[in-house]
Design a protein that fits this description.
By secondary structure, this protein is an alpha/beta fold. Helices cover about 50% and strands about 10% of the residues. Strand 8 and strand 9 form a beta hairpin.
Length: about 375
């Protein structure tokens, strides 16, 4: 949906070129316009442009209504309490806000701004070819930095990825203008080389430390689960370790228990007891009726809408209980996930259970595995 801006940018640029060719260079005449219309109209019908544009028009109207309403408030700092459009907490606390901008390429943006300042100071003109990346940059800058400050929740992290792409293009074009005009900036070459080295080293650093599901350091713990725990063992975890257990350790009994506060022995036992009680009962999930939506096809060179519905009788899907008195029960906790780069994000701190880092090893349960990266305690 965000990439729809590419269409808008192209449309604006085409309009500007059309104006130049029509009114300035006078290369386009009414004959060209008639020929253009003759060719374009069939494509509007074939591609069903109206069905493509209608959702975007509706979305645009909704944004305008929100902007014109009184529900918007201004926040200079938003990353410390930011919840995106999907309801996910993507807040960054304290100095981690600086890391957020460094990670997303703010140094590159700073060099670009300096380049534009020098061009303006030396009264050097920039070409119209800079307009597409400038428009693209402007849109995603609004998405990343302005809209969140007035309460419109999008995805600032992903928006910054889109934002930096045109920054790279613009920086190349600005450097080209500087070179063509023999504008000497002594420190520019080493700065650009430094940014390239930072990019390479940053890529390696992020690849090594941006842990979400599993990391190489957790593999010994994975092997222990696979080869040493009972085949019917039920594994609990307060983290998102389902792939670690089910995919890499090849175990099919895993339950993630949500933890949002600091635990003690009593609260942990209550949490485990409630989890095991729920897991000892078959889960019944109703299967709702299924409907195939509208299909469009051509018949005798005419576009036909046909509604086809497939109704399925409502049934109950039964998921067998994961827990019984015969299942050994273990609790898994990865210390290594807490040292990842992405735990600067508040949502990741919750899913990695940062609050209870020093709790689980001291609850009094037998420790069956602990290599300072992965902890496994036996509950039953």
């Amino acid at each position: 949906e965000l990439s729809f801006i590419l269409f808008l940018v192209s449309l604006i640029v085409l309009s500007i070129h059309f104006r130049r060719l029509t009114f300035i260079e006078k290369k386009i005449t009414w004959k060209h316009l008639i020929l253009f219309v003759i060719f374009v109209i069939p494509y509007f019908e074939i591609l069903n442009i109206r069905s493509i544009l209608n959702p975007e028009i509706t979305r645009t109207k909704g944004i305008i209504e929100m902007l014109s309403g009184d529900i918007l408030t201004w926040h200079w700092w938003f990353l410390n309490h930011y919840i995106d459009a999907d309801g996910v907490i993507v807040s960054f606390v304290g100095k981690n806000i600086l890391l957020y901008y460094l990670y997303n390429g703010v140094l590159l943006l700073a060099v670009l701004i300096f380049g534009f300042v020098r061009l303006a100071k030396n009264k050097l003109k920039i070409g119209i070819y800079l307009l597409p990346p400038l428009l693209y940059f402007a849109y995603f800058f609004l998405v990343a930095e302005f809209f969140p400050r007035i309460g419109l929740a999008f995805l600032p992290t992903r928006a910054w990825i889109h934002l930096i792409l045109p920054v790279v293009i613009l920086l190349v074009l600005v450097v080209e203008i500087i070179e063509k005009n023999s504008l000497k900036i002594k420190f520019l070459p080493p700065v650009l080389i430094g940014l390239i080295l930072i990019g390479y080293s940053g890529t390696l650093y992020v690849a090594k430390t941006n842990i979400k599901e599993i990391d190489r350091a957790e593999l010994p713990g994975v092997k222990f689960i696979e080869h040493n725990l009972e085949p019917n063992a039920l594994i609990l975890s307060s983290q998102d370790n389902i792939d670690l257990v089910s995919v890499y350790a090849n175990r099919d009994k895993y339950i993630q228990i949500p933890v949002t506060s600091t635990l003690d022995i009593s609260s942990f036992k209550q949490l485990v007891k409630a989890t095991l009680l729920k897991a000892s009962k078959d889960q019944i999930i109703p299967i709702q009726d299924q409907i195939i939506q509208t299909l469009e096809f051509y018949q005798n060179h005419t576009l036909v809408d046909k509604q086809i519905s497939v109704i399925q009788d409502e049934k109950d899907q039964i998921i067998k209980a994961e827990n019984s008195d015969n299942n050994p029960v273990y609790f898994l906790f990865s210390y290594h996930k807490l040292d990842a780069l992405n735990t600067a994000n508040q949502d990741r701190q919750t899913s990695a259970d940062l609050l209870n880092r020093n709790v689980y090893a001291h609850l009094g349960y037998p420790i069956v595995y602990d290599d300072s990266k992965v902890l496994i305690i036996k509950i039953r």
